[in-house]
Design goal:
Strand 11, helix 12 and strand 12 (316-317) form a beta-alpha-beta unit. The protein has helices at residues 2-11, 53-62, 77-90, 114-118, 132-138, 153-159, 180-187, 208-217, 234-241, 259-263, 286-293, 307-311, 322-331, 333-351, 353-369, 376-388, 395-402; strands at residues 18-23, 42-47, 70-73, 94-98, 147-150, 162-163, 194-199, 223-228, 248-251, 269-271, 298-300, 316-317. The chain is α/β, with parallel strands linked by helices. It is globular, with a radius of gyration of 23 Å.
């Protein structure tokens, strides 16, 4: 939701925008906590679930999606197929945003054709729209989209498309408007404390454990660790719950609108991405943009997407043990801070809403100018799901029938009404 919301929020400066998506119980039954009640964009949620019910639910929702452009967040089936079903009704242009190499989260990273998917019908994950089988298949649909945006150059090298980095609203992420000393005092930090801050969803692969261990080995400075966000995983929850409050201040999720206030308390952001993990090869953490916006020095692992930022002087690479690099930063902190303050101008030029909106507008204009028919790969997917999951004969199916796909359908049925988790869809 984080990436989707930010893109929608940028576009909200010029367009009418709404976000539509499913809440899968595995990931939470309601909207992501930081945006709950504070989103500036209309968010319409509906219950996520397993096939076959989920396909019929998407059919019902898709009939009510009437946007002029369909902007899909992430090459995963729940968002992709919902947009495909909506396109079958009104043939709107489709843009796909990619902010991760989704196959990097699975042990088998090879895409699957629809024929190969059909051979996996007996697998447990076949009925989970968000799981491995359908994610590997979704990778084969990427090239069918009218336009593509990606969050960094490494993803651009793999998939093409226009680079739209992780963005922040320059009106909110402005270090000059937050009372840093008062915020630090409220959090229990002394003036001479050096605060390393992590703001986001703590997960093991994001290096939280490495930061905790490294800070425990720092001797020349009084370092504290501020963690803002509810951790994922038993080990992390146990660690942060039992942490020494003199060394680690761990807070649950906070409203996204309050994030800049907590960042203003920080002196350093560390991004110890695990270089050996496939997902890290294509990730630029949004915390990089946070740091640039809020004038905070950055230490980061030498992953392919992060190296260019080091070459531009926007961060320092971890070319030595983390605790040694942390000590080196604080040994000469005034110089590091001055550089971070200078780098804030780069944020305004490249990573702010004002900088990114013209690029997004250009993508949308090009998508609107491309009056392309529904690709065969999209029609084949819906026809297959209609047959195997016995979907109702909605207007989308009628359109498919008109395009010569009649032999793929199961007998006519009926689509159930879809109750909404948040009450928007009825």
């Amino acid at each position: 939701m984080g990436r989707a919301y930010l893109l929608a929020d940028v576009l909200g400066r010029q367009y009418d925008v709404e976000v539509i998506g499913a809440n899968f119980p595995r990931f939470g039954r309601t909207l992501w906590e930081p945006l709950r009640g504070s989103s500036r964009v209309a968010v319409k949620g509906f219950p996520g679930g397993n096939f076959p019910r989920f396909f019929r639910d998407m059919q019902s929702i898709a009939e009510r999606i009437d946007g002029d452009v369909l902007y899909v967040s992430k090459p995963r089936l729940p968002s992709m197929e919902l947009a495909i079903l909506a396109k079958l009704h009104r043939n709107r242009p489709m843009i796909l945003d990619i902010d991760d190499h989704e196959l990097g989260f699975f042990s088998d990273k090879h895409p699957l054709t629809l024929k190969e998917v059909i051979q996996r019908q007996g697998r447990v994950d076949f009925r989970r729209p968000y799981d491995e089988t359908w994610t590997r298949f979704s990778d084969t649909l990427i090239e069918q989209f009218d336009q593509i945006t990606v969050s960094n150059a490494e993803l651009g090298n793999r998939y093409g498309g226009m680079i739209v980095p992780h963005v922040r609203d320059e009106r909110d992420f402005d270090p000059g408007v937050w009372p840093r000393d008062a915020i630090r005092n409220a959090l229990g930090f002394a003036p001479d404390d050096r605060v390393v801050v992590f703001a986001g969803t703590p997960r093991q692969h994001k290096g939280v454990l490495e930061i905790v261990a490294a800070l425990g080995r720092v001797r020349r400075h009084r370092c504290k660790f501020l963690v803002v966000g509810s951790p994922v995983g038993r080990r992390l929850r146990y660690l942060l719950r039992g942490a020494d409050p003199e060394r680690i201040v761990a807070l649950p999720d906070v409203p996204f609108a309050d994030l800049p206030a907590y960042l203003s308390a920080g002196d350093l952001i560390c991004l110890p991405q695990r270089v050996e993990e496939a997902a890290s090869r294509y990730q630029v953490p949004a915390k990089l943009t946070d740091a640039l916006a809020m004038e905070i020095p950055i230490l980061a692992s030498p992953t392919p997407p992060l190296k260019p930022f080091a070459e531009d002087g926007l961060l320092e690479l971890l070319d030595a043990p983390l605790e040694l690099k942390i000590e080196a930063v604080f040994d000469d902190y005034p110089a590091r801070k001055r550089r971070a303050q200078e780098n804030q101008s780069v944020f305004l030029r490249k990573f702010s809403y004002g900088a990114v909106l013209p690029r997004l507008t250009d993508v949308i204009d090009r998508a609107l100018a491309n009056d392309s028919p529904t690709p065969k790969a999209f029609r084949d997917l819906v026809a297959y799901h209609s047959r195997v999951f016995k979907g109702g004969r909605s207007r989308a199916m009628v359109r498919l029938l008109e395009e010569g796909q009649a032999n793929r359908f199961a007998p006519e049925g009926s689509s159930p009404a879809v109750p909404a988790a948040t009450g928007e869809f009825r």
